[in-house]
Amino acid sequence: MLTKTENRPAAWANFIAGEWEDKIDVRDFIQKNYTPYEGNGDFLTPATAATTTLWNSVMEGIKEENRTKAPLKIDADIVSGINSHEAGYIDQSLETIVGLQTDEPLKRAIMPYGGIRMVIDSCKIYNEPLNPSVEKAFTEYRKTHTKVFLMFIHLIFVAAGNLAF
């Protein structure tokens, strides 16, 4: 821990001193060192030709989705995860960052950890059959984010001494 008489690390040179130096106090650090930016965006450079081309390509897909009132594609077989899909690109020759959610532009991933009913209903709305093994896993074996809360209800009754739950 640093005392007020010790030298401050060079990285802290332009920060205003405070409680944050002695303990974890994010609020104190922000209150003392945050300066709102009230200027405009003139310092930003315009989009590159590659970015504009990529954006226009995405907008064509979005126009199609707006026309049909449906996603271009839904991957109803693979549960979304950090490495569930291969690297996705809009146009790999123009891209410097790999970061699509799935392996194709505007292809929607399913996220049943947030609630399988929403995934089932979404697939039905868009006439996309949900992989039966995904549905079975999330209705019979896995607890979704929503179902985890049922445990809290039980614990509240136990804590209150009412074991009739």
UniProtKB/TrEMBL annotation:
<keyword id="KW-0012">Acyltransferase</keyword>
<keyword id="KW-1133">Transmembrane helix</keyword>
<protein>
    <submittedName>
        <fullName>Formate acetyltransferase 1</fullName>
        <ecNumber>2.3.1.54</ecNumber>
    </submittedName>
</protein>
<dbReference type="InterPro" id="IPR050244">
    <property type="entry name" value="Auton_GlycylRad_Cofactor"/>
</dbReference>
<dbReference type="InterPro" id="IPR004184">
    <property type="entry name" value="PFL_dom"/>
</dbReference>
<keyword id="KW-0808">Transferase</keyword>
<feature type="transmembrane region" description="Helical">
    <location>
        <begin position="148"/>
        <end position="164"/>
    </location>
</feature>
<dbReference type="Pfam" id="PF02901">
    <property type="entry name" value="PFL-like"/>
</dbReference>
<dbReference type="GO" id="GO:0005829">
    <property type="term" value="C:cytosol"/>
</dbReference>
<keyword id="KW-0812">Transmembrane</keyword>
<keyword id="KW-0472">Membrane</keyword>
<feature type="domain" description="PFL">
    <location>
        <begin position="6"/>
        <end position="165"/>
    </location>
</feature>
<dbReference type="GO" id="GO:0008861">
    <property type="term" value="F:formate C-acetyltransferase activity"/>
</dbReference>
